[in-house]
């Protein structure tokens, strides 16, 4: 049977032209000229996918998505925004509401059809997987009950490999996993409107990352990249639920992670807001001595760009500050390393 598409679009010409494209591609299509009619039609038509404009009378696309996501009959239907709104904040807002994709007007016919086909195929794969899930879950439950740590569980997991500077995920990607580093080092970072990078964290062997977006069930709010050759485990929502349900003690590990992250974030906000450049630089260097993956004793192997991005200052400002610290015999520097000579005096910098 042909797949069903619901198209919600207030512009008559766009609505009719798009419907014609879909019908020629052998989809069964129903259309609505505003969000309110679209929701009513969705309940009776039960489409395989919904294509919806954002700016519409009566009820806009965001409102449509919010209502549909709360309806048990409709919330699993893939939802694609079809819109002329291309600002980053608009895209982010839509993804936070739970949209599966964005297609910006004007669009190519092939772009629209590829997006629809891709989303429908994902649902089909998920549904096929669900048919075998009870048997699979029952067979795994005894294993989960016997796990006292993750070692036994991880031996069954696929290892994902990333090269130096290879991206692991990008901001606004859907968060479907918690990442655990088997071996290597990773940084997380944000890019501001001027293209400047600000590093939000470093992670090394046996550390988790990507868990805040995962817990909040929202797209990633930052980017991540391997800073050495890295091997990762990806732990899915179903796996986390099964492990926690059968091993209640495991949840305390994640509570500790979230608490540590929150405390660190609050301290960093205070540092950035109120302290001098010298204080920011000294505190960050000392903090990295505890957390940074690439260190040996009191020596950090870190690029000036990454260090500047960690502190939140310009690279040129950092270089001047490091030179001052060297003259004061607080640190020793090479083009690729920073060695702390006098940790006590570095701690007292204001």
Please characterize this protein's 3D structure.
It comes from Lutibacter oceani. Pfam families: cNMP_binding, HTH_Crp_2, Response_reg. The protein is α+β, with helices and mostly antiparallel strands. It folds into 3 domains: 4-120, Response regulator (Rossmann fold), CATH 3.40.50; 146-267, Jelly Rolls, CATH 2.60.120; 275-347, Orthogonal Bundle (Arc Repressor Mutant, subunit A). 47% of the residues lie in helices and 21% in strands. The chain contains 13 helices and 17 strands. The protein has helices at 12-24, 35-45, 61-69, 88-97, 109-145, 151-154, 211-216, 237-246, 250-274, 277-291, 304-311, 315-327, 343-347; strands at residues 4-8, 28-32, 49-52, 79-83, 101-104, 160-162, 167-169, 177-183, 186-191, 197-203, 208-209, 223-226, 230-236, 295-296, 299-301, 331-333, 337-340. A 5-stranded parallel beta sheet has the order 2-1-3-4-5, with helices on both faces. Helix 4 (88-97) links the parallel strand 4 and strand 5. It is elongated. The N and C termini lie far apart (71 Å). Mean pLDDT is 80; it is low at 132-148.
């Amino acid at each position: 049977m042909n797949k069903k598409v619901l198209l919600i679009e207030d512009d008559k010409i766009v609505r009719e032209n798009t419907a014609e494209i879909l019908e020629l591609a052998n989809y069964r299509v129903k259309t609505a000229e505003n969000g309110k009619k679209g929701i009513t039609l969705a309940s009776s038509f039960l489409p395989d996918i919904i294509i919806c404009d954002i700016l519409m009378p009566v009820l806009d696309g965001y409102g449509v998505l919010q209502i549909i996501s709360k309806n048990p009959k409709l919330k699993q239907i893939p939802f694609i925004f079809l819109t002329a709104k291309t600002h980053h904040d608009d895209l982010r807002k839509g993804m936070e509401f739970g949209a599966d994709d964005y297609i910006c007007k004007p669009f190519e016919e092939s772009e629209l059809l590829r997006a629809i086909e891709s989303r429908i195929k994902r649902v089909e794969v998920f549904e096929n997987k669900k048919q075998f899930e009870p048997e699979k879950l029952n067979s795994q439950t005894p294993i989960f009950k016997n796990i006292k740590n993750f070692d036994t569980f991880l031996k069954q997991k696929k290892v994902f490999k990333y090269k130096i500077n290879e991206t692991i995920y990008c901001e606004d990607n859907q968060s479907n996993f918690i990442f655990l580093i088997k071996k290597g080092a990773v940084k997380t970072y944000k890019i501001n409107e001027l293209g400047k990078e600000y590093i939000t964290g470093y992670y090394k062997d046996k550390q988790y990352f990507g868990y805040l977006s995962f817990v909040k069930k929202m797209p990633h709010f930052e980017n991540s990249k391997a800073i050495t050759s890295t091997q990762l485990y990806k732990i899915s929502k179903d796996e986390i639920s099964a492990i926690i349900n059968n091993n209640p003690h495991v949840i305390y590990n994640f509570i500790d992670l979230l608490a540590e992250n929150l405390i660190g974030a609050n301290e960093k906000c205070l540092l950035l807001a109120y302290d001098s450049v010298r204080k920011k630089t000294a505190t960050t260097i000392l903090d990295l001595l505890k957390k940074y993956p690439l260190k040996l004793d009191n020596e950090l192997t870190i690029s000036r760009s990454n260090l500047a991005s960690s502190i939140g200052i310009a690279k040129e400002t950092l270089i001047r500050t490091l030179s001052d610290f060297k003259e004061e015999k607080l640190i020793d520097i090479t083009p690729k390393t920073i060695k702390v000579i006098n940790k006590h005096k570095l701690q007292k910098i204001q």
